[in-house]
Design a protein that fits this description.
With 240 residues, this protein is α+β, with helices and mostly antiparallel strands. It contains 8 helices and 9 strands. The strands form 3 sheets. A 5-stranded antiparallel beta sheet has the order 5-6-7-8-9. Strands 1-2 form a two-stranded antiparallel sheet. The chain has a two-stranded parallel sheet with strand order 3-4.
């Protein structure tokens, strides 16, 4: 609240199919990234199976989530954080964007805009807040001294370094191909009216802007009654 006080907040996750809410969960964490796996695991417990396909926006595109869906053999039409920016001309033409730097997989060497090589330096391990382990390969340029582009490229005293996550690169390539396909585009359009319709109806048309109860258990009951009413109205419209 910017005054030292805190208000309880809840992150609502829903799963929809054919216009009906088939599952929901309430989480305390503000970001969506860490909600996908527990939400799907809860749905698997309730329904006895995972969906054949998961369609989600960029808030859910992480290495951990992609790997989970792949391991569970669930189709994934899921954007990642930078996917939208990658479609822009400014992104693809930005020479200082290291994603655009040349990489030779035969020699395992990157090349900076000045034409200087960044060679493999060492491996590094990073763990996310959920404990998921990411393996990174670090590449360093040892010829930055005196480069006319140094100030534009890096402030590091030891030269420019970049990291490469082989697993994430492969999973993002897979996600990118899926999103660019006709089926992927169709499913993303479908997602827009599947999930957003629920929130639009409840928030805009019914004026539900805040929970009246406190605590995850009570809030879950409150939200459950709302989506139950939504599903009943949807059933009446479909049956009429």
């Amino acid at each position: 609240m910017l005054n030292g006080q805190l208000k309880p907040g809840y992150n609502v996750q829903i799963g929809c199919e054919n216009g009906f809410v088939v599952g929901y969960d309430i989480f305390p964490n503000p970001t969506d990234t860490r909600t996908l796996i527990p939400h799907l695991e809860n749905m698997k417990t309730r329904l006895g199976k995972l969906p054949n396909e998961v369609i989600a926006d960029a808030g859910y595109g992480s290495e951990e989530n992609y790997a989970y869906l792949e391991n569970e053999k669930v189709g994934a039409t899921v954007k990642y954080t930078m996917w939208q920016k990658e479609q822009s001309r400014s992104w693809t033409k930005n020479v200082w964007n290291t994603d655009n730097w040349k990489y030779d997989d035969k020699t395992d060497v990157y090349e900076c805009p000045a034409g200087k090589p960044l060679t493999y330096s060492h491996n590094s391990t990073h763990r996310t807040v959920t404990g998921y382990k990411q393996n990174l390969r670090i590449y360093t340029c040892h010829d930055c001294e005196g480069c006319e582009f140094r100030n534009q490229c890096t402030k590091a005293q030891g030269g420019k370094s970049i990291q490469r996550n082989e697993a994430l690169t492969r999973l993002k390539d897979k996600a990118r191909d899926r999103l660019a396909s006709d089926e992927g585009k169709r499913l993303m359009r479908r997602r827009a009216f599947e999930d957003e319709t629920v929130f639009g109806q409840l928030k805009a048309n019914q004026g539900f802007r805040r929970f009246r109860l406190r605590g995850t258990e009570k809030v879950s009951v409150e939200w459950g009654l709302l989506v139950l009413g939504f599903n009943m109205r949807r059933l009446m419209r479909v049956g009429s």
